[in-house]
Structures are given as C-alpha cells and as structure tokens.
Amino acid sequence: MNQIGITTWVWTAPLSNEEFPSIARHIAELGFDLVEVPVERTTDLNYRDAAAVISDVSLAASVCAVMSPNRDLIHPDELVRSNGVAYVRHCIDAAHALGARNVIGPIYSAVGRLWQPTPDERAREVDLLVRQLRSLAQYATERGVALCIEPLNRFETSFINLAEQAIEIVDRVDHPACGLLLDTFHMNIEERSVGEAIRAAGARLRHLHACENDRGTPGTGHVPWQEVADACRAISYDGPVVIETFTDRVKTMARAVAIWRPLAPSPEFLAREGLRHLRALFGDLKGAARYAD
Fold this sequence. Notes:
The protein is of the alpha/beta class.
C-alpha cells in the first residue's frame, strides 16, 4: 500500500528546528504516513532532533533537494558544479540521518535556469550529468538512500521536462540507487498522456508528487486522477504519493514558484481534502476504478 505524504512547504519555509516538531505532529494527526522535508539551507534543521520527532509520531520521511542558482550539477562554472555535488551529498546525509529512503527533486540543474543548447552541447551536458549522478548514486546506496530525478515544466527548467528525458538519464546512470520522480503538476503541462508517462517510467518510478493542475488541493482541478491511479496500478507502483504545494504566506517561496493567490481556503483544508482524495485513489489500488473523479 502506498504511503501518503505531504511536504512541510504547505505550512512554512524555510523549515526550522522550532517549527518542525509541531508541524510533524500535525501531519501525523491529520492521518498522513510521511513527511517530506525540504533542505533549503543546510543549517536550518538539526537532523538528529528531527529524526527523533519523526520516530515519535510514527511518520516515514523523504528529503527534497532545493536546487538554487549555486547548486547545479551541469553548470558551466566548475565551482557551482562542485557546490551542487556537495549539496546533494548533504541531502543524502540528511536523509540517512532522518531515516528517509528518497532524496527527490530536479537533481541536475538550478530551478529557473533556462538555456537552449545545441544538440552537441546537450549531449555533453547529459554525459556530465550521468557521471555526476553515478558517483552520487554510489554515495547514496552506501547510506541506504535513493535519488529520484524529477522532470520540471518548461518554465522552471529547459533541461528535463519529460518523463522520457529523465528515463534516458536514469537508464544511462544504470544504478539501483537512481530512479525517477514524476509530478502530476508538471506532467499536466508537459506530457501528452499522463498515464503513458507513468507506464513508461515503470519500475524506475520511486516517488510520485500528487499536485493539482493549479498546484492546489488534489482532486479539485482537472488532473486526470483516475488515469494516474490506473497507470500506477499497471506498473505495480507502491512507493510514496506526496502532496507538494506551497503556502502563499511565505512571500519569498511564493515568488519563487509563482503563487500569487491562496490555492486553498487554508493549509488544513488542502491537507485534509487532498489526503481524502488520495486515500480514495491509492489506499486500495485494486478498488481505484470505483473512484469517480
């Protein structure tokens, strides 16, 4: 059975030692199975203390890498690349400390960096990324962690927008600790068929972000949720299903992800209704076809 989770970004950013215990307890009380922990700044959270809280409230965890302009695995500047590698290693160490299985996100380039390479330039960038990820995957597997590479929509990156592009990377890395994350928000923009993208990912899919087309409450928009559930059932997907959206109350984060209005009446409404919707879809995949969008 899939673990249903939610990111702390629904309530706050950046995450702090002071806020995390109450947010984690609230997530558990709402009925979620997993908390997704973003690593915006490497000094924001004491992972040992956070791990104790996670254990105390009986949650699983995942870690979200935040690829900022100085964290980029394929940047032309070697110093930026080195910093990106060091940051991803930090996220892997954080996941190990938290007891998390997955480090997820666009683990290739800074979010918002857009460029249009020639075919030869792209081939070189793909080669470079494959080398970087192969080394990081080895580091991850030694710590019991997997990397999950996420395609983003065209407005947030020009490098990996489609499942098929991410599949190429994962297949070339060819390491058991390197898999794929798909996000229904990004797929809704980029994929011709959300279901076919999930089916193409197959066993490579390790993590699923469940977000509405407006990045609001799952089940309130036009994402083809039945198609998502059917495709997940077809590939026997049993990994995490995590609500990833953001509060408009934190202006720096809202600006970064272009959220200019509240996406739900409250974070609690978004969490409760999103959880209800996802439980109906994924709580019993054999019964998913009985759920009406």
